[in-house]
Design brief:
7% strand; 2 strands; single chain; ALR/ERV; Four Helix Bundle (Hemerythrin (Met), subunit A); mainly alpha; oxidoreductase; flavoprotein
Length: 175
């Protein structure tokens, strides 16, 4: 087994992708089936047919992803990691599937520029922006001093969850 964290992560992504492809194929070829599942190397995925994703579900999933990213963000990020996070936020503000949400996020970015100097700075910025969104939705404010307790770092073997945004240069790849 390789000790290269990027290679390990790519293997994991490949395994998940393969499982999801099987599920989608099963779903397309058996429209009457209400549940699909597959198991591969201790990984079980169950998908139930339901209505399309709601705006609320999409928002919760997005915030889960962003806060998890913030929890993994390094204390001393590289210049590339800082650029990547800023670009990700910019892309989200333009490409988010909910147009009203995307427009609101663009306005938030103008009044609250992304803070990427450190783990603490980025995770606190995310918490603040999330609270601004929650306030606009009439939801409760989350106490940002508890952000690390709520969204602690992922525990992964051999540091495979650590961000390594500067290890691979994708600029030279052809698409």
């Amino acid at each position: 087994m390789s000790s290269n964290p990027v290679e390990l992560m790519l293997r994991c992504v490949e395994r998940v992708s393969r499982n999801l492809s099987k599920l989608i194929f099963e779903d397309l070829h058996n429209p009457n089936k209400t549940t699909s599942s597959t198991t591969n190397q201790n990984t079980a995925i169950t998908v139930e047919k339901s209505s399309p994703v709601t705006k609320e579900d999409l928002g919760r999933a997005t915030w889960t992803f962003l806060h998890t990213l913030g929890a993994q963000y390094p204390d001393a990020p590289t210049r590339q990691q800082k650029r990547d996070v800023k670009e990700l936020m910019s892309i989200l503000s333009r490409m988010y599937p909910c147009k009203d949400c995307a427009d609101h996020f663009q306005q938030l970015l103008k009044t609250n520029p992304v803070q990427v100097g450190s783990h603490a700075e980025f995770s606190q910025w995310l918490c603040h922006v999330h609270n601004v969104v929650n306030r606009s939705l009439g939801k409760l404010k989350f106490p940002c001093e508890r952000v690390d307790a709520r969204w602690g770092k992922l525990e992964c073997e051999q540091h495979t969850c650590d961000l390594h945004g500067d290890l691979t240069d994708f600029k030279n790849e052809r698409h």
